[in-house]
Amino acid sequence: MSAATRRVSRFFALKRKYLAFPYILFLILFILIPAILILFYAFTDETGAPSFDALVSFFSTPSKLSVLLVSLFMGLQTTLICLLLGYPAAYFLADRKINRNAVLVVLFIMPMWINFVIRTGATRDLLSAIGLDGGSHPWEATLIGMVQNYLPFTILPLYTTMLKLDRSQMEAAADLGCPPWKVFVRNVLPQSLPGIVSASEMVFMPVMSSYVISDTLSEGKITLFGNSIYLNFSNSQWNDGSFMALVFLVLIGLSMLVTRRFERDPAAERGGGLW
Amino acid sequence: MRRQRTLEERKELGVRIGANAYVYLLLFLMYVPVLALVLFSFTGSVNFGTWSGFSFELYVTLFQDEEIMRALGNTVILALLSSLCSVVLGTLGAVGIHEWRRRSKSLAEALTQIPVVTPEIVLALSLVIMFVFLGNYVYAGFGLSFWTLLIGHICLSLPFVYLSVKPKLLQMDPALYEAALDLGSTPRKALYQVTLPAILPGILSGFLLALTLSLDDFIVTSFTRGAGLLSGAQMIETLSTLVQARIKKGPLPPQMRALTTLIFLFVILVVAIVTFLMLHKRKGKRHAERRNA
Amino acid sequence: MDTADSLIISLEHVRKEFPDGFVAVDDFNLSVRRGEFVTLLGPSGCGKTTTLRMIAGFSIPSAGRILLNGEDITSLPPYKRPVNTVFQHYALFPNLDVYENVAFGLKNKRIPYEGKDWRGRPKTKYRRLSPEAIDEKVARALKIVDLEDMEDRDVSSLSGGQQQRVAIARAIVNEPQVLLLDEPLSALDRKMRKDMQLELKEMHRKLGITFIYVTHDQEEALSMSDTIVVMKDGAIQQVGTPESIYNEPVNAYVADFIGESNIYNATMAGERTVRFLGASFPCVDDFPLNEKVDVVVRPEDVVIMPSGKGRVEAKVSSRVFKGEMYQYVLLVGKSEVLCRSTEEYDLGEKVSFDVLPKNIQVMEKELVENEFKEAWLDGKGNVLLGEEEISFPVDYRQLLKGSRLDEEGALIGPKGNAYDLKDADVVLRIALDKVELEDDLSKGECQGTIVSAVWLGDHYQYMVRTEGEEDFVSDTPYQWNVGDVVAIHVAPENLRIELRKEISSYERRD
Fold it and tell me: Which CATH class is domain B73-255?
């Protein structure tokens, strides 16, 4: 080893912080630069000249605006149903008096490990067997598919918050003669609010951006943000697609501003919850 | 006194039965498609929902279907390779960034957050746009291939590896690293001797998470895939893209029922092993504590 | 006495400045003899741990040198230093068992020997310790710390005390020239701590290696060390044997930190006579007449006797039974005297006391400002001082950030809560150049006689004594003579007050 290489290798041996360089480089190359390109493509035309065509087209085409509305509506409805179904389930699962079986929680997560395209296909075939096919009931079929797919993502964060519920507070309130519904509204609900917020986050946005579920179950009749962007991609309409993506990103930014105050560590809950 | 107690007990029992019934009903509804797939995998009928007698026919045709087998192989290779890359990059990233100063650290974390909060489809679109941009303006020969697909899958899981390793680093006593140096380890050796064992659980769960994300992915795959390495002149197919293309045209291919059953069995096996190991470990620890007391 | 050969570690003008500009240690000079048990003692944040970390190599000094056996090791990495550390929270490797923890350093060790390279030329080669040698050394180290049959145990299954022993074994097994111990007993309970103190002392005697021990516990330091280094704000206050540090503290800080003590502002009133608590005491130290000094009297050196027999009259204000004796707090005016006696006196009883000359430790006072430790507030915007109740108007708002005053001059907190500061005890500080002297006796808050005058090159320094024997020191360019009567004036903004208790205890609750 020459003196120079020895010096270099020693330099690296002592400085652990340089280990992060490949990671950062990867993120800059494949996350940051593409994100900037989205911005660039959203405000240019096919020739690369600056243009507001995509913007004008988005806000003047009723079918594009309706994508926004339909997506919002589908997202809200799925989130609401998932919360209504998942909240009591998470509460019961976390209550020691009712459930002492930790495996039950795992059972709720297990379907996630089966390929979701196969699951969606099976759901569609079953639904059409009972007459709820995409041709005649696109909205209902899609909604059922969405709820089925995203329910585990609702139950998991709710369950984690419920485990931390201070049950002695509730018992004290009940002891003092507080009726059960009042205990729930005054005590349980506020305590579990962070779980509700992160559960909603894990459902709302992914539903709006989903492609396979809505495309399969509605037989192409319902167009969400995901379907719209997918269509732009298939037709190589990069500018329109980029603008669509940008609108969606703005929407996410707005919703994050709203939910941020309720959350402790969004990423940790999202990623950490699975395992 | 006695009467009152039984009444209360009865009420509690009622609540318990009701709550359990609800949970199991919900669980059943969620499992309906999976259970139906498993059930009808043991019949030869092509139509989903009709029973034409018990048979292992579908399992035989599953392994004879070259297209499915190739897609399955592609899926597994892609998942393992991308998870491995993510684990190496993400772990090094977490270890390195842990040593950074506060401001550059928060910048790096913000960068990490981008792919976490961005929907998959936006992520996929932005990647494709960059690849198209490269092909148009930088190097005309550049096109989508196995490598772009690999990059797409790494993008998908990389931040989650970082995020599962980071808390382990935070939990680690910084004095451990100093203790290793104090006892004669060079910084590099201390990394293997002290830091690596401490963050290993985080690395493992990051790896499993990366595997799950990659195996299940449709969007990024269908955007960033090209022809090449795994498939010659054809587009690379994974299980997701293959099944999606089939169900767009008709019902779910019957062999998929057999495949789902096998996957489901595998998942149950893994969960059972992990649960057993965790219980065993906890018991071992308790045993040691008792011995100590 | 300290020949170069007997010294093992020297720190020369060592300074550590952190990136944020905080100076943890400054101009630190210390020499440690081979085999010595040295303790760095001080409150948290005094730089003692930083100093230890620089000796261990975890932290590189910003300036200065560290010598080991005369060789400069200032920037040598820790893994190359023949020094080992026992960490505060043990830092045992959780994934390794007891044996593997202790063997960690041995497995890293490479022993040089004279071998030959492939051409047959002599060359220094390195070999590992054999497994048998490691086994033997580990067994011996575990025997020293009384953990013989624990080799296979998981470290997480050990008690705090046992983990502590493993940490010590892990360090001493490497036969370091210096063993560094960073508050090793702080995580143990009281009883265990006492036992470990004795054991550590015994280990030090048996092993014969140099111990450098860091603690904030003065009792630990006094009972174990050969030499104590008292630190404050990154600087050494005093270096000495436990006896000399306890009996002859060089300043009020050291006296206060080591053991319980009574510390008073005093003035030299004559040859070997010092005046405090309103009386003159003979003493053994001599300082110039009228010099302001600090006086330390240990509680056990205050001799209580019936009223009228002693030098100073006092009143019993509290009594606590301690088993073999009573602990009293006596009041002399507003000053407290902590003392002990086997005799029983009643609360409120008039007593008197005296102190033997040799038990009065007189220390030079570093005069940077006027400090009155026994001032109090009247709750109406004034601070009061001394027997004659000298009163200065002062701004109470400095006591609490974001506070304001209401119409009556009472303090209102940022959240609107009121504070009742009547009779609140405070320390009053006035910079020397902010004490203004006036000939016109009506212009000041009080008056006094100039008892000393010194020309300090560009200004005079006067000491002015009031009738109640409060001494003000004033830096001023104007000239007066000793014996002149002057008015003393301090502008309200130049009075700095600090409550002796938490401000929250004065919060008005109604």
Answer: mainly alpha
